[in-house]
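Course assignment 3, question 2. Fill in each field.
Student: A.L.
Task: Predict the tertiary structure for the chain below.
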Amino acid sequence: MPSSPTERSPASVRLLTLAAYVSFVPVGVATVLLGPMLPILSARWSLNYAQAGALFPVQYVASTVAVALSGVLVSRFGFRFAIQTGLLLVAVGLGLLMAGPRWLAVICIAAYGAGNGVAVPAANLMVAELNPGRRSATLNWLNFCWSTGAVACPFLVAAAAKAHHVPIFLIAVAALSLVIAVLFTFAPAVEPRAVAPAVGGTVAVIRRKLWPFLMLAALFLVYVGTENGFGFWVASFAKSLGSLTATMALMTPSFFYATLMLGRMLAPFLLRSLSDIKLAQAGLILSCAGMAGMIFSQQLPGVVASASAAGLGLSAVYPITISILSKDFAGSSSRIGSFMFVLSNVGGGLFPWIVGVTSDGFGTLKAGLFVPLLGCALMYVLYLQRWDQLSPAGSELSS
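Answer field:
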């Protein structure tokens, strides 16, 4: 039986939550790595836009399969074991990424993608269940830590590429992942043990809450696809303008991920006076403006401003969506959560590929960037629906 929050000491809960926070730093690096690495890998293997874009489904197909298995791992061995397994896969994938030919790199991309797929849903659901009174706030902090890795990644890749030390950088992140996986062993044994309900019970819950379920499914699918479809192609878009140096182009995604991090740091404070639904709506408007601005940018100031606006606008949307899932499907969060995270990984791999194919078809990345812009607009429409029926005003989501 899962232990209730009252059976866990506040100090133990804080320590395990902190362990999850720390684990998300290398996970953040691994999640976005392919974006800033794409110009390097494209030059190494002479890839066109469509061929380069096909690398994203490799990462996210593997991640999707791993998400589906994550629920089984969590149910049998607990959240902590799943997170450790994910970190080990990340370590292996990153450590060997530049160690051999193209086929080995593809396997490594799949490996660290699978690691993300195991670790991300386990950590998100664990933090949500450990902190039932402050779900949105703690999930924003968790994803803030993910953002620190995502922000640092393009800068570190650019610096490593300039010094011709990209393999050393990858090995260093792999070593960090391995150390964190080992240290996780010493975290307090107070984690909730997720027990998946019977399939029939889960189906009954979905039938009772079909409309919220469908809206959440659409949001999980579109959000990660939109974030990746924009963030993963920013470096390539900046390079295609011809007005930025190669190093500066590789660093441009950091502005997107920096404001994503900043927004997640500010969100817990904003949620004290603003409902989570209103915050998500306002953020999506800002993000649409940023993505539209990127399409028409020609110089560095426009690229930086547009990427920053897009990141800040998207920052709180995903944690709020996970918080709503955890609250409204608490009794079935393990099984339904696995399905939702599968959808997020499908979107995460599909949208960047569509961006690449669209860009190749029209001969410009500007055309491809309309894909995440439309995704952002769709999420805004979804958040305009009757969310008060899904999450009553004044709930702990805004704590």
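Instructor remarks: Confidence is low (pLDDT under 50) at residues 1-6, 390-399. The longest helix spans residues 333-362.
Grade: pending
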